[in-house]
Design a protein that fits this description.
Elements: H1 6-13, H2 23-85, E1 93-94, E2 96-99, E3 108-115, E4 120-127, E5 132-134, E6 140-141, E7 146-154, E8 163-169, E9 199-206, H3 209-212
Parallel strand pairs: 1-9
Antiparallel strand pairs: 2-3, 3-7, 4-5, 4-6, 4-8, 8-9
Bound molecules: zinc ion.
The site of zinc ion has 5 residues, from loops.
Length: 214
């Protein structure tokens, strides 16, 4: 017991039971303590890495959130542009009735006209509640000009079409002979005008009262 440290002697005096501990024992305990410290450090590292993983996940989430927000904002911008290029709904189309000189009974024929704010590719049809009838209009409806079109013959006892539907697209670049413009929304482009419209206007047709009395 020649290498007992003063501290151990003190402990021994206080009746400490580890009286046989010597410097070698301290080294052993020290190693154990280092080992323990290593475990603690490792645990801390794991905890830290978890929290750092958490924080990197949080920053990834934040980045995703701001990307989503940016996408949402640009979607709002795109929707706004799409609506800006949509023609204003005229509310109603007043049928212009004329005597049908080809009809011996002097029946009427109904026309209507529409003016669009810019040039669109177009297709139109009337709707009488049960069926559609295509309307003869040019493929390109020039902007800023009234376009008069034939609706139908107005025959006594036959309900005339109550609605006209316009299917509209931006002009086709390189195809349509007009000032090009386009909508950024990625909607239908109008190569096939039998297909889905980029904008659709459903407009009620109003007839003169005397015609409705048939
Ligand atoms: Zn659009």
């Amino acid at each position: 017991m020649t290498t007992i440290t003063p501290r151990l002697l003190l402990l021994a005096e206080e009746g400490w039971t580890w009286r046989d501990l010597n410097a070698d024992n301290w080294i052993a305990i020290g190693s154990a303590a280092f080992a323990l410290a290593g475990v603690i450090a490792a645990v801390f590292a794991v905890v830290y890495s978890r929290s750092s993983a958490k924080s990197s996940k949080a920053s990834a989430d934040a980045a995703q959130k701001s990307a989503d927000e940016a996408a949402r904002l640009s979607q709002i911008e795109i929707d706004r542009e799409h609506n800006r290029y949509a023609p204003d709904h005229p509310g109603i189309l007043h049928a212009e009735e004329e005597v049908d000189h080809r009809s011996p009974a002097g029946h009427y024929v109904a026309f209507a006209s529409i003016t669009l704010p810019r040039t669109y590719r177009a297709r139109a049809e009337t709707w009488n509640g049960t069926s559609f009838t295509p309307i003869a209009i040019p493929l390109l409806l020039d902007g800023g000009k009234p376009h008069r079109f034939f609706i139908d013959q107005v025959v006594p006892g036959v309900t005339p079409p109550g609605e006209v539907r316009f299917h509209l697209w931006p002009p086709l670049a390189g195809v349509d002979d007009t000032i090009p413009w386009s909508c950024p929304c990625g909607g239908p482009t109008g190569e096939d005008i039998a297909g889905r419209a980029h904008w659709e206007l459903r407009i009620p047709i109003e007839y003169m009262p005397e015609v409705e009395e048939f």
